[in-house]
Amino acid sequence: MTTHVVETFGLSKRYGRETVVDNLNLAIEPGEIFGLLGPNGAGKTTTLLMLLGLSEPSGGHCAVMGVNPLKSPLEVKSKVGYMAENMGVYADLTARENLRFLAGLNGIKNPAIDECLELVGLTSAADKKAGTYSRGMRQRLGLAEVLIKNPRLAFLDEPTLGLDPDGIATMLELIERLPREKGLTIVLSSHLLHLVSRVAGRVAILNRGRLLAMGSLADLAAKPGLPEDLETVYRHYLKAEGLEAPEVLGDPGATGGDAG
Amino acid sequence: MRTIMMKELADHFGSVRFMILLAVVFMVALLGIHLAGQGVRNLLSEGGGAYLEGRSFLMLFTAPGALMSLLAFMTLFGPMVGMVLGFDAINRERNQGTLSKVLSQPIYRDEVILGKYLAGLVTVAILFTALLAMLVGLGLMAIGLVPTAGEVARLLAFLVLSIIYVGFWLGLALFLSIVFRSVATSALAAAALWVLMSFFVPVLGQAVSEAVVQVEDPQNPQAGELAALDRVSRVIALASPPALFSEASTILLDPTHRGSKQALRFSTMSRLDQFLLNRFQGVLSINQSLVLVSPDLLALLAFYVGTFLLSYLVFVRQEVRSA
């Protein structure tokens, strides 16, 4: 099964007695947009951190493009772009300088800064300090920082968190273009189903670190005994866990942190 | 690492903080040189000129001014420079959400602290070289004496020593910025450590030595008892970088100063040199002074390496997420 871009086998993470990720098995295909869906605290961020080698799994193992991130973190990090939730940019630097710094950290000699800025629509603001940017612009700069290293895989953690409806639409549009134009595989984490369902081909629904269901949205909806409506499906899986999570169906402008 | 260092350097030099630091340091320097200049002029006019032959220029640094000597100023304010440059190095990035981004790039974690550390050290080196050059220039004008070659050599050694000293504080501040998530807490902790090491440890040394050493008649202590008192408080002062720096730089800047006999015991000086040193009470050569300084320097370097190692160990084990 080496064709999978990301594979996890029984991946687990415990902090003390608390299990954050519990025996997770995932397989992500190249070129797809994969949604990690779940309420706050479901273990989405922890999973991504383990895949990047930034956090050590307590059990199980994982492979990112055939590489074990625990053994060769640098190899994984050079191939994978990661946009953390609530990620920050250097406020005193311009967008261009931020990108140049990131390219420098990746040892890229001639980074395609202008193209990246063009792609995320920041060309006109390229030489303004990032501190003056709106939240949406900063988020797009964050995406450009992922793209500057020419990754083959991108982990986007709550990329639409705190954006207004326009910002969300722009961001999703961008994310949707990337697999087609750059051949990227994207793993997208969110607690908002209706956002993920707009771009993701397949999703995994997580709650309290456990995988509840995985498959294309159509597959999940077509499961016997379930109504067609995807939100109802999502709610169904969460309800099976005894969790009523109105925030997962929140409005597009919904803000608030996600520790998961 | 180079990328991080260059960015941090640019950050340092472009920051308002650095400008304020520069203003404070130069203000202190101006004040210090003014007071010290007066002191040296007084000494010279009292007919000490012949006595001070060959080291009158260095007196600028060690002569007690109206408040304190220039050296004491530097012992006290040097740590401030190091701490201001380092106290928020890591936790600021953590709080603004750039740390996880940097750490998800293909670089080792120690490159992050090393890059930041070296940038701070280069900044300190530039600042202190400029400061010393300015002090020498102003000193020339203040007392109208030209330093001899030996004095210049001693000044250069002193410059290196002070950069190491401030570097220690920089490393300490960096460590605090790793341990404490809040910038305000690490600033406060740095200030607390500064007070502890600058004021508390020397006083503690005195108190402990008085408790340990039996003095028969406090009104009229014997020479041996005084020596014992001195020895104990010196051992405790080894735990205080300001005391080490103060001792070492006094030896470097004052050719007649021999430090303690303790230093001699630990030093690598040959027996002949030791004999000569004890036999002839006079001006030391710079080589002899450097040998005398070596134990203090070693202790200072041990502190230095210790804090850095600690920073590294804590940082590598730390979770990335800020929550």
Quote the beta fraction of chain B: under 5%
For the record, the count of structural domains of chain B works out to: 1
Distance between the termini of chain B: 27 Å
Topology, number of strands of chain A:
9
The radius of gyration over CA of chain B amounts to: 22 Å
CATH superfamily of chain A: P-loop containing nucleotide triphosphate hydrolases
Total domain units of chain A = 1
| Order of secondary-structure elements of chain A | EEEHEHEHHHEHEHEEHH
Average pLDDT, all residues of chain A = 85
Q: Taking strands numbered 1, 2, ... along the chain, how are they ordered across the largest sheet of chain A?
A: 5-6-7-3-8-9
Which residue ranges of chain A are poorly predicted, with pLDDT under 50 across at least 5 consecutive positions? 246-260
- What structural category arises from helix and sheet content of chain A? alpha/beta
What kind of oligomer do you see?
heterodimer
Protein model, in words:
The complex is a heterodimer of chains A (260) and B (323). Chain A has helices at 44-51, 73-79, 95-105, 113-119, 135-147, 165-182, 193-199, 217-222, 230-240; strands spanning 6-15, 18-28, 33-37, 59-64, 80-83, 153-157, 185-190, 202-207, 210-216. With 260 residues, chain A is an alpha/beta fold. Chain A has a single domain (6-88, 151-249), classed as 3-Layer(aba) Sandwich (Rossmann fold). Chain B is mainly α. Chain B has one domain (2-317). Chain B has helices at 2-14, 16-48, 59-62, 70-86, 91-96, 99-103, 109-143, 149-179, 183-212, 223-237, 241-253, 261-266, 271-279, 286-317. At the A-B interface, α2, β5 and α3 of A face α1 and α6 of B.
